[in-house]
Amino acid sequence: MKKAGLAAKMKKRFKVTTKANPKAIAAPNLLQQDFTAEQPNQRWVADFTYVATQEGWLYVATVLDLFSRRIVGLAMSDRMTADLVSQALQQALKHRQPPSDLIHHSDRGSQYTSSCFQELLQEHNIISSMSGTGNCYDNAAQESFYHTLKTEHVYFEFYKTREEAKLSIFEYIEVFYNRERRHSTLGYCSPMIFEEKWEKQQKLSLSSVH
Length: 210
What we know:
By secondary structure, the protein is α/β, with parallel strands linked by helices. It has helices at about 80-95, 110-115, 115-125, 140-150, 160-175, 190-210, and strands at about 45-55, 55-65, 70-75, 105, 125-130. The protein has six helices and five strands. The protein has a five-stranded mixed β-sheet, sandwiched between helices. The protein is globular and about 50 Å long.
């Protein structure tokens, strides 16, 4: 990077926005900080963050597939409600159509422990998993994505309106992050390329058997 005259973009810390409901029953932590998956739609992690605009906060909820680090669900709103995280999950379900043994991991925020969100998981036979109380490392893969989103993109933008921020974030995720951004954990492939290579390998393996 020094030879090419490149420098890393600055890092900033996150602000905790979720609050646990002390009366809610949290699901067990099934991941135990193991953020690996052997195939797509096996383990998803979810969370939401905030982005500043002149109109006020924009809350961004995402669902990430641990196999490829691809963002498979995205929803944005001016409120951090259970409906926000439900919309992100519903989008992921529509696009991916996962098997019934999928694990969905999140923190213990009131949005994820809400009855409507838990009913959505049960409706699709999804296994709920949750981080330990106040332990951000239990959902490190999502934290890492939000760090990337903010330090590579959001902190270099100035949003007048929430709608402007929505379009900007959607473009970053769908056009750049999922399709083009390379990950060291994926052998320097983008999430979509990594999945495409895996699918080709699966087809080759099946054809060799027959």
